[in-house]
User: Fold PHD-type domain-containing protein from Salix udensis.
Amino acid sequence: MPPASTTTALCRRQISSRRRTSAPRRRSPSPSPPPKRMKLLTEILQKAAYTVAEREDYGDVNCEQCRSGERSEELLLCDKCDKGFHMKCLRPIVVRVPIGSWICNKCSGDGQRRGYRRGR
Assistant:
């Protein structure tokens, strides 16, 4: 077996003697479609139709339990039926304004009366 330094020198000579004589061949076009170009926001906004957003007025909302519109800062609006409820009129009482969406008992299905059987 030849010494390692001789083998390494021989490999280097072979690698350095290889030279590219022509440009690499181009691959044939792939069957997949070319990537789609994303539209700029300015292009999208130019084509977008303008709309007028309707602003709902919740100034005349009353509590469904006590029928009062007072203490509006304590009124919770159901995200499903848009009815108002004072936090203290609800059972169980809601201590603070919930984070995120809130659905009343009727819309969530918890407003149904449940029957209880008496034990024998």
